[in-house]
Amino acid sequence: xxxxxxxxxxxxxxxxxxxxRRALLKAVAVPGYQVPFASREMPLPYGWGTGGIQxxxxxxxxxxxxxxxxxxxxxxxxxxxxxxxxxxxxxxATTTRTIExxxxxxxxxxxxxxxxxxxxxxxxxxxxxxLRWLEPRxxxxxxxxxxxxxxxxxxxxxxxxxxxxxxxxxxxxxxEVAGRYLTSPSPIPKFDNPKLSDCPALQLFGAxxxxxxxxxxxxxxxxxxxxxxxPFAVDHPGHPxxxxxxxxxxxxxxxxxxxxxxxxxxxxxxxxxxxQEGQAxxxxx
Amino acid sequence: xxxxxxxRGIHKHFIQHLRGGLRLxxxxxxxxxxxxxxxxxxxxPSGVGKSSLxxxxxxxxxxxxxxxRVAGTDIAVAGPREIMALxxxxxxxxxxxxxxxxxxxxxxxxxxPARARGDTPEVARxxxxxxxxxLNLPEKLWSLPPAxxxxxxxxxxxxxxxxxxxxxxxxxxxxxASLDAENAAVVAELIDEAKDRGTAILxxxxxxxxxxxxxxxxxxxxxVEQAA
Amino acid sequence: xxxxPDAILSARDLCFDYGNGQGVRRVSFDLWPxxxxxxxGESGSGKTTLLKLLGGLLAPSGGSLSYRETSGExxxxxxxxxxxxxxxxxxxxxxxxxNPRDGLRLAVTAGGNVGERLMATGxxxxxxxxxxxLDWLTRVEIDGARIDERPTEFSGGMQxxxxxxxxxxxxxxxxxMDEPTGGLDVSVQARLLDLLRSLVADLGLSVVIVTHDLGxxxxxxxxxxxxxxxxxxxxxxxxxxxxxxxxxYTQLLVSSVLAA
Lengths: 285, 228, 260
What we know:
The complex is a heterotrimer.
Chain A: H1 14-29, E1 35-36, H2 50-59, E2 65-70, H3 77-90, E3 93-94, E4 103-107, E5 120-124, H4 138-146, H5 151-164, E6 175-177, E7 181-183, H6 193-196, E8 202-207, E9 212-216, E10 222-224, E11 251-255, E12 262-266, H7 269-284
Parallel strand pairs in A: 2-3, 2-4, 4-5, 5-8
Antiparallel strand pairs in A: 1-9, 6-7, 6-10, 8-9, 11-12
Chain B: E1 5-16, E2 22-34, E3 39-43, H1 50-58, E4 65-70, E5 73-74, H2 80-89, E6 91-94, H3 106-116, H4 121-134, H5 151-163, E7 169-173, H6 181-197, E8 200-204, H7 208-214, E9 217-220
Parallel strand pairs in B: 3-8, 3-9, 6-7, 7-8
Antiparallel strand pairs in B: 1-2, 1-4, 4-5
Chain C: E1 9-17, E2 23-31, E3 36-40, H1 47-55, E4 62-68, E5 74-76, H2 82-91, E6 93-96, H3 100-103, H4 110-120, H5 126-139, H6 156-168, E7 174-178, H7 186-203, E8 206-210, H8 214-220, E9 223-228, E10 231-237, H9 238-243, H10 248-255
Parallel strand pairs in C: 3-8, 3-9, 6-7, 7-8
Antiparallel strand pairs in C: 1-2, 1-4, 4-5, 9-10
């Protein structure tokens, strides 16, 4: 698909992209640290991925192949719109296949297919500050980050165990990046947290409304907070995907009728399709 | 013998600012040497400054002249910490009234000075119990805070607290004022025993019988001429 | 600055100006281990401001403040890097606010409130944190069964005791208290006072306690400083100041107390 004329490549002007790239370089240099940037007005509302789009625009080149997922799915409104946006403004190739993509913009999931060194994962982030709900003052959260003073987050986890018997937080589970900064992984399910650590791909996070960019460089240690006697653990629903039968992937619950009937299917649509194709291939053979 | 307490030329006056700066002279030129084993009773009618002198020696009243030497420290010029140290180790004080502490049992109030001097809680309570028993305080009261005790019961707690430690110097302000004859006799025994152990005692005692029994000598005091 | 060799805290000429003539003017004192110093005076005399200067909640406009650590090292509290200051504030120091709501996390359970200092200083074992919290709740006479309740469900007296536990859990050496019994009923006050008195004695704490209640001062403090107009106008042993007040203002203060 060729780019619409009248737009600069990937919509943003070159000065803006350079500004964002400078922020990205700093973010990569200080893993997990939230770098302020001059977030632009984008042709879609806050909350629809304005941060992620700006980061994607800044890293995208003409040769890139872009994949966009929303909660793991390639075919939701948000994912389709953003994919079309870049197809029109940058003329880049798009794909729904994880292995084919060089840049993947995501909302709230990490693909099940392991990422590679040739890929960049761009997260849309609503609230970049992991301490925001515990400490409303920005000046104070900055001080807490500067001093590595994260006891208050541990108190939050303590509260979960005290009240619910375990750490209940199922998404946006706080992590410590490279042994230093407490970081919000954006609202990915905690199921995906282990994939953050030691990942070969570059992970970039953009928060448009909050005007923050942060990064997890390739092969960086990312630790999910926990207690010695209540170690971090991933929950799994315990049943297979109703379509592809996978027992290891993250599942969405889908209501299928008005009688309360429901099934569980893979949240990662590309992963599910690949497994179905593989099974069809085996059956045909 | 070396005196444990030595007073030289003690002067004390109050300036009552709320009464237009009225000056009230209460002590003037008091001298005294008190040796271990002695019991000096301050002698004189009400208003001659007997209680003031006791309070000056204890450090509660800051004097305006003279020296109060106790165990090498001059209380007249000593700082708060030096006075606190003397109160912990050297000077015992039985005042007329018990200053009650809410919720603390009588037994623990009595034991407290012994604990402050380093006794274990058990040893201190043991000493306290022995004294309270001698002073005929019913055992069922020992675990109660003395706030609700009668005047005589409170005074016995106060006395026990004063005698739980072998103070080198003991100040007694009307120790038997609200006691019956039987308990007053016990106090007299306690004072005799303390003197035998070498405690020097400075006392106020209006009860003639008791005074005759405990006093080694009297220190006559008279009203200070008020400065104009 | 010269600090007496055995003092734990030394203030020299501390000043703070709110810009309206009120504040703290050249206050100096030394505090020793196990020493309980009361600061009395009427509202606006600068006593709470002084306490905030000592606790690092306000930065003085002049003067010096030295603290001797357990190791014997003397720290210039006013020049301490922020990280060190915060660490000190949650390990060796305690600050008990008049209103427990200022010193507690109201959305966090009693156990979480008490455990926060432990977690902030690196404790990562839930079971041990909880056991410490339970021990401290018991010490301040809060039923351990209420460990998972929020302070908002507690009475004022319980909240204040919880705040004290939250401060003492880290084994501080110096505790600053601002009218700790201020907002409480008299009967609740008595219980809290007794608790404070015994904790201070058992733990050998050094304490600076601000109060306008001379009865509280009499019960808890070894020494008193009387403040008026931002200055210390009289100081001495508690019984010296209360039984033999010299300054006109102190005499007024003492004579204004209703005898019970």
